[in-house]
Amino acid sequence: MLVEITLIVTAAKLFFMPLYRSTDFEVHRNWLAVTNNRTIDQWYYDETSEWTLDYPPFFAWLEYGLSHIAKVFDPEMVKLENLNYASDMTVLFQRLSVIVLDFVFIYGTKSCSQLLNEGNLLVFILLVTNPGLLMVDHIHFQYNGFLFGILLLSISNMITSNFIATAFWFAVLLNFKHIFLYVAPVYVVYMLRAYCFTVSSNDGVHTPWYSFSLTNLIKLALTVISVFCLSFGPFIDQLPQVFSRLFPFKRGLCHAYWAPNFWALYNIADKILQKLCLKFGIPVAITEASMTGGLVQEFEHAVLPTITPSIAFAITAISMIPALIKLWHLGADRGYRCLSFVRCLTLCATCAFMFGWHVHEKAILMILIPLSFLSVLGDIDCNLFLFISVVGNYSLFPLLYPKNLLSIKIFILLTHIAIAFCYIPALYELIRIKPHKKRGFMILPGLKRFQSLYLYGFMAVCIYENSIHTFLGFDKTLPFLPLMITSVYCALGVCYFWFYYYYYFLTFNLSRVPTLMTSRSAQYEKKVT
Amino acid sequence: MGKRADPDKFTVTKEALLPGLFFALFLRWCVAAYPYSGYKKPPMYGDYEAQRHWQEITVQTQVSHWYRNTTQNDLQYWGLDYPPLTAYHSFLIGLVADWLDPESVRLFASRGYESDQHKTFMRWTVFLSDLYFYVTAALCICIDAERILGKYHSNVFKRTDIATTFFLLYPGLILIDHGHFQYNCVSLGLFLWASFFIIAIQNDTLATICFVLALNYKQMELYHALPFFIYLLRKCFMCVPNKGRFSHIIHRFNKLAIAVISTFIIIWYPLLNSWDDVFQVLHRLFPVKRGVFEDKVSNVWCSANVFIKLKYVYNNEEMIRMCFLCTIMAALPSCIDFFFRINRKKFVLCLINVSLAFFLFSYQVHEKSILLVAIPVVMHMPEDPFMCFWFLLVSTFSMLPLLLKDGLLIPFLCTSLIYLSFYSIILKLSNKDAGILSFLNADTVYKAANPMANHNSVILKLLSTNFFFSLQGMFWLGLGTLLVEPPPRYPDTFPLLISMYSCLHFIFFLVYFTHQQISLPTCLPIKIKVKKN
Q1: pLDDT at B361 > cutoff 70
Q2: Domain residue limits, chain A
Q3: Inter-chain CB proximity A418 and B22 less than 8 Å
Q4: What's the pLDDT score for residue B326?
Q5: Is the pLDDT at B1 greater than 80, yes or no?
Q6: Do residues B420 and A3 lie in contact, with contact meaning Cβ atoms separated by under 8 Å?
């Protein structure tokens, strides 16, 4: 069945080829040209286009490899001075390169879903039909698919306890795109606990220090360091330049379109307070530029304290620490700890998304993808996945703003969530001893009443955004209001998700029997009894 | 009778219904993102411009002028050539267009009006019409097919969710309606509703009304008229009580006649000022002068035209007579069989045969008319999946030259690939060991549809081999069309080859389906329960 589903999804991707594409298309075309025409020591210095190379070296190498194939399609494509060049062959080549590289994602998905006893096909379908990924990669144009494929490969290796392979794949991933640094602490903590401490205690609290294995640590370190050497080695002379490209701090707290995170709520609170203060005659600084204006990169809050990058990073780090400590303790149990790892991964991705500096809305995929895997492994994961998959994917809608894409966006999302809502809750119905009471009116399967109500709100948001707003004539005076409404409404959902999932993870107790097990944990159970 | 005895209580499989439905709708929008016929091709543009022009005419001129050549209505430029219901539909859409974007329906000034926004609007009108007429009818037919089977059937093709999705994924209709741009979904949807009333509910009056509506949307529905006529006529004479026999028949007949005539009158009333008007409309609907076929159609005349130039041998009059005779001859076996050995299962088969005969032999056929055959075949799918699937692939393939002209190559490939993969998934659902290529094997397919039946394995092997070679032929012909430059003397080589190749298939299918219909027994076999003592 996997082959057929892969074919169907690939066919759907082919459909998207001539559709709208964002400036990221030109970004990647430019990188093809830069890597092809410049010598290695010039890659990170070239400034012909405004879209300079700002991904780690492996990605540059990938573009270098692709550029040789690109020449066959259209030699004009790899010329540096051909800015904004988009011939039919260029489009075909670039789109095909994403589709072909996506087979890495499909392979990663397969290796992850194979580990499950039940619902493996379901997880496979959920992952490959992820509408966010399809929209971002195949319409908006980016190469996230194969990066997440590598992430899934490292997760599947972690579940089967191939720690060296995990370390290798994750290091490779980091050298493709450094955004994954946000979840690196989870890997570090978990590998330390599970691999470097060879003995596990039953109570899950005490860690026997004497069992620390230095050899294992050295093995891990060697793997990681060698990957990094391979990647950054050729650029050893120009490391400061490379790093200044990789970590630009000139950008603002929020992206042009506010990612639906804590800062979106913070900004809107600031706006409201500013309005209130003006009304009651309290003098405040009046900021001219609207924060959703798109072009403004840095701005000052009017009432609330202005956030600097260091504050944002401090909050992100602090918010992760409790989860990491909990992971350390949960890591003591051999049978179940790999699931705790994936949960913590999701949680830390959420923390980064919530409090990170200049977060892109696409980063929500970091939450959705591991969570789709978890959705068949516990009923609260299922509940939260159903919830966040609607919120997260909807929050990506503004990325594809042309009006004629609206129906494609809506139906791709509806197809995905219909699969999720029809099949995932049904898995838990089977194993429940007492059959569930009949669902109430208007309550979606697997969700609670207020969660369902919140999700119904998206219909209202969507209708307002696409028809009523223009109808009322606000599109001239308040052009960014719909974007703001979407991001704030989604931010409420993401915040709720973060609270609930954090609470669930911190209070997680091993005495709670896992509802559905991975094959590996099942094997372990057999060994014990 | 089983489940039908209690019509209010039935359960159907619906677990994959919503995902499948949404996916089918999603696919429609994917195709809709591509260009339509006549996209940026002045001065005549294509079907899209025709539809837009009709909105302009119907909104801006009086009803009585719609079908006439006046100073405001130039019939040479995409004059209305469909029956009044199409005109009303255009009028309705035109009113909305007038409200949203008056520029798009301004008289004369709007000719060749094209913009992204307008395209989105037009696509929405097709989508909503599709949803309202076609999707609902397909859903009802599929639900009914499973309902009468009861819970413990094993035909995976009759599971409501799968049948509906498969019904809606048929590439031909999606490509023509949402890509090329037409409103076939409306007439075909009404036709499906009429068939639904006959197959499922057996409400003959409603069926008549729906069919008359379909006929008044597109005159091409005449392809389906014979089976409806025979069925309804025959029903008048069936199971009549001996007492008052004559009056009973008259009563039934009158009911249908009143339904037909009143529907016709209501639809035509705004146009009926004089008999002359009616003739003018009829003249518009049946343009005799336009020749026996347009472009390259995969019917007999177009194929014969390669060897004998029909235009020089026969004049139009003779040609019409010959077409008429041949069509009747081809449709007759199926019609006679249906009249004398009536059986509700034969209804769909008779529809297939008659419409196929019309497609192959009648006068003034478009390549898109194959949809009129394809939809009954889609309905027949759960009974005979292997042959129907083959037919549907060929029917989509026969439209390839048209689709290429519109720039719909990628949608053609993708929808066909998706259709094939979905078919393969269905086979796998019923048989876990089925591989990705098992759809080539007729035996596996028939086992999935009906595990109990015994099929003749020699014939099945023969069919499988033929299917394989037929697919090969389609593949190489398609590849040739795309890559090989035809000799300059014969620029139409590949479209002609495609239409002849498809025509051969269609003749074979006509024979096959006629044979299938005749070999069905008169009455449905009644299962007799044997009491075990």
Answers
A1: yes
A2: 2-249+310-522
A3: yes
A4: 92
A5: no
A6: no
- How many domains does chain B contain in total? 1
A403 touches chain B (CB under 8 A): yes
pLDDT for B345 equals: 82
Q: How many A/B residue pairs have CB atoms within 8 Å? A: 89
CB contact under 8 A, A11 and B124: no
Cβ–Cβ < 8 Å for B347, B337: no
Is residue B422 less than 8 Å (CB to CB) from chain A?
yes
pLDDT digits (tens, 9 = 90+) for A141-194: 999 999 999 999 999 999 888 899 999 999 999 999 988 999 999 999 998 888
- Residue A17 in contact with partner chain B when CB distance is under 8 A: yes
The whole-angstrom distance between B287's CA and the closest CA on chain A is: 37
Q: Do A414 and B117 touch (CB under 8 A)?
A: no
Cβ pair B33:A12 closer than 8 A: no
Asked if residue B68 is part of any domain, the answer here is no
Residues A520, A522, A525: CA angle, nearest 5 degrees:
115
Summarised one tens digit per residue, pLDDT across range B220-275 is: 999 999 999 999 988 888 777 777 788 888 888 899 999 999 999 999 888 877 78
Using the beta-carbon criterion (under 8 Å), do B127 and A407 form an inter-chain contact?
yes
Task: Establish if B277 belongs to a structural domain.
Answer: no
Cα-flanking dihedrals φ and ψ of residue A197, to 5°?
Answer: -105, 110
Residues 6+ apart with CB under 8 A from B475: none
Take residue B5 and report the two structure tokens written for it: 């005895």
Tell me which chain A residue has its CA closest to the CA of residue B118.
A404
Which tens digits make up the pLDDT trace of B7-44?
Answer: 556 677 788 899 999 999 999 999 999 999 888 887 77
Counts of helices then strands in chain B (DSSP H, E): 23, 0
* pLDDT recorded at residue B5: 47
B108 falls within a domain: no
Q: Quick check: B34 contacting A, CB < 8 Å?
A: yes
Residue of B nearest to A410 (CA): B26
Among partner residues A3, A8, A404, which is closest to B116 by beta-carbon distance? A404
> Residue B229 domain-assigned?
yes
- Are B301 and B372 in contact, with CB atoms under 8 Å apart? no
| Contact by Cβ (8 Å): B47, B182 | yes
The pLDDT value recorded for residue B7 is 53
* Domain ranges, residue B9: 2-39+114-236+287-519
